[in-house]
Design brief:
The chain has 361 residues and is α+β, with helices and mostly antiparallel strands. The protein is built from 11 helices and 10 strands. It is 39% helix and 18% strand. β1 (56-61) and β2 (67-74) form a beta hairpin.
């Protein structure tokens, strides 16, 4: 069984220019068929392009007056009524399986737009007029890499993901939690946090990302979800950015431990956990992932077969990752892979001691 140590040597620094913006990959016909089969594809009353018709925008600032990199956008009176009606219908489809009776209690409070990142998302703020409660969801450009990332998260992680696709539009629910970088700044050193539990969760999160080759998990790309548990708090680290599912060629890019932005979490883990504990938590997470895959084996095999036939990186990056994984695992099986989907399958097979045969579909 392959093992790896948790350490902070030779970190990846995204500020050096080596990590460039990933291109968007189209959703293939085969992937659309898969999405429809698993109820991820629904016809929408509007599409991503409709939201680009805004006529005014201004920066969205946080409580301290800092730029959030989001813009608040507004629409002309002739467009706003139809767009807002469409946004409410999409929210009801996402939140309550299309029960349109809920529409009378809802209103669109704000539409935000972000030019930072790969998917240029719109964030929709929905207000319940009965109790003044708020909720959010996102409308993005459909990108095959992100969809594979969402599906793998739904299958192999403890987190279930609610989203659907229509043509070139992707709708995603809001994932709640404290952004990882904000948590480092404001919460990590607070004495009321259970440092051992938090360190354990980072080790398990680190393991999950590498097993399914999800990259770029710097602290601002995940959130800390906290749940009270008797007199303690249970921690769950949740990914909120799936754009870098199996794209980069460097294997270290798929370990959150190597990013300089995550130094505080790595140090916490090394300070509060022994090597034996780290190995134990890695083994626990692998066993749980293997069980989750076995419970969704047909869907998992269907997804990987579609992914193996898709091109979601450059040939050069695919060859580089195959060579680096072969060296890391000391196993040449990766050198036979021609796509990222194949590398994901072989990495999971090897690390979970699986033998998933896609030809048996």
């Amino acid at each position: 069984m392959p093992v790896h140590d948790l350490h902070i040597e030779d970190p990846i620094d995204g500020k050096d220019g080596s990590l460039k913006k990933k291109p968007s990959y189209p959703v293939t016909k085969e992937l659309h068929i898969y999405l429809k089969e698993y109820l991820r594809e629904q016809e929408l009353p509007l599409q991503y392009e409709d939201l680009l018709r805004y006529d005014m925008s201004f920066p969205l600032l946080d409580g301290d007056g800092n730029d959030t990199l989001w813009m608040i956008v507004s629409y002309s009176p002739s467009d706003q009524e139809d767009i807002y009606k469409g946004l409410l219908k999409v929210y009801v489809m996402l939140a309550s399986d299309g029960n349109m009776d809920q529409l009378k209690h809802l209103s669109v409070d704000r539409v935000d737009y972000c030019l930072f990142g790969n998917s240029n998302p719109f964030r929709i703020k929905i207000r319940n007029t009965v109790n003044d409660n708020y909720d959010y969801y996102y409308i993005k450009q459909a990108d095959a890499s992100r969809i594979y990332g969402l599906e793998l998260e739904h299958i192999v992680s403890p987190n279930k993901i609610n989203y659907f696709v229509y043509k070139n539009t992707l709708i995603e629910e809001h994932i709640m939690g404290i952004p990882g970088d904000v948590f480092i700044k404001n919460d990590l050193l607070n004495n009321h946090h259970n440092k051992v539990r938090l360190a354990k969760e980072f080790v398990k999160f680190n393991e999950r990302c590498f097993l399914r080759l999800l990259g770029d998990m710097r602290s601002y790309n995940f959130v800390i979800d906290m749940t009270p548990d008797f007199d303690q708090i249970q921690y769950r680290i949740r990914t909120i950015d799936f754009d870098q599912q199996s794209y980069e060629g460097k294997y270290r890019f798929y370990f959150p431990q190597f990013f300089t932005e995550n130094y505080s979490y790595v140090k916490l883990s090394l300070d509060f956990l022994t090597t034996e504990s780290i190995r134990q938590y890695q083994a626990e997470e692998r066993a749980l992932i293997a069980k989750r895959i076995s419970l969704s084996i047909y869907q998992y095999k269907r997804l990987l077969k579609v992914m193996e036939n898709d091109a979601i990186t450059t040939p050069e990056k695919g060859e580089q990752l195959a060579a680096e994984l072969a060296r890391f695992h000391k196993n040449d099986v990766f050198l036979k892979c021609k796509t990222m989907g194949c590398l994901v399958r072989e990495n999971l097979n090897l690390m979970l001691n699986l033998n998933v045969d896609l030809n048996s579909l």
